[in-house]
Amino acid sequence: VKLGGRPLAAAKIVEAPSDGGYSLEAKVPWSALPKSRTVRIGYRGAVFFHDADASSRPETVIGTSEKRDYAHLPPLSLAPELALGSGLLRERNIQAAPSQNLLANVVGDALDERVLVYGPYLVVLGPGYREGRQYYYRDLEGTLLGFEVKDVTGDGRDDFFIKKRVQGSKGWVEVAEVLSYHGGSETPEPVFAQELRLAIGDDAMIENELRITGRGRGTQISLRATKARGIDQGSFARESNTGAEPVLLPWGEVTGQTFEFRDGRFVVRGETKGRGASAPAPAAAPRARPEPRPRGASWAKAAAQADPDGVYAHYKKQRDVRGKAKFDLRANLAEGAGKERVVVHDRDLVVFGEEFLGGRGFAAVELVAFARGADIKKLSTRDITRDGKQELVIEGVIESPMPDDLGGGVMKREVVMVYKVVGQQLERVFAAEVARNVGDKRVEATLRFTEGRIIELSPGRASGYSERTYPWRQKTTPDGGFEPLVLPWSGIDKVRLRFDGQKFARID
Description:
By secondary structure, the chain is mainly β. Helix content is 5%, strand content 43%. The protein has an 8-stranded antiparallel sheet, with no helix packed on it. An 8-stranded antiparallel sheet has the order 24-25-26-27-28-29-30-31, with no helix packed on it.
């Protein structure tokens, strides 16, 4: 066995007789390969037998490959690469080569991982990742426009910077997203997600400009609303549901933002006010860019003195809201002993009260996960985080068309979301899919709020579906910010999440 024409002392070759000839086995130590200290994945190779019995020159050469260049050599697959071939690639009938095939240090151990993109699927595998036996994949849920691997969080690990296009019923949205293993997570988590361009029909478009400067801890992201074409403030109605922060509007209150990485996420460092901005509100701490979830907003104070009824009237006038609220209840949500009032108009969730913001302002969030207000089915309150304050529990339905190859029709996903008043705004701290319906077929899970600030998700039952006929696999990581539906045949006993002070996070 030779490397570069020189014999390898630690290498071995063994031959054994077999019917009609003999078999060969070659053993080459990792130490013999120059890059093996950091790269032990993605190798290719072949065995060649040279027959030179009658002369000093080979008379016959037999090999496991006809050519010797890297592109034509067969892969020397390790366990996770074999698992990928028999798993995702076979199940999705993926035969084309990956559009991205990179080596990167995303997990942070001594060995690089292999990063692949097959159509909408991001794949990560490596000899030190998941004990070198499994691979990770994620549906990017869109058409890939750009993909880059670099450290933007400053922890020495490479992160994924992704641009994708998400198609909707009336147009498309371009989204920029950063996925990161920051903090030692076993799977990459979104630390930044922002809509950049929104197209409605063939002629209307809103565009933002995104710039990333610096590297590592010095990385800064800047966002600027640039132009709108074929659409204006009077005709615009947001209908996208990408889970990312919405595109900035040229006529909006905020037309520019800068972000820096802090506390595990990119947070807003500064804002540029637009022509539509009202008088500046009191300064507040930087607002975190959450794992894809709707933007929370606190409006400037609406009255000179405590006047909750006047605040409510101000909200309705500002948002051109008429009629009674779909839901209207009272609960102690914020600081102080008094109860706040909570109303839902269309998709707006609004909080105000005698003690909240001094009785002179309100907080609101648009529940953009739902296409219309009618999809919000229930609003209730309970102290889930065990801090003596009530959280808001929203139940509703998200509808989406089924692909033609799955029979068409409409898929209805039943979801539960939990919102909490944090300071002067509403933050989503939990979201999960708890049932899925297609026609008369249904799969459901069980959700339970338990002691100790814990939420449990466990399998329920299926009607009209079996493990063989259900067209989706069990997902193990959040999908668009929602904990995935736990399937009856998943083998999962339960998923437990505990409130960590900011959100409900998995604990096992």
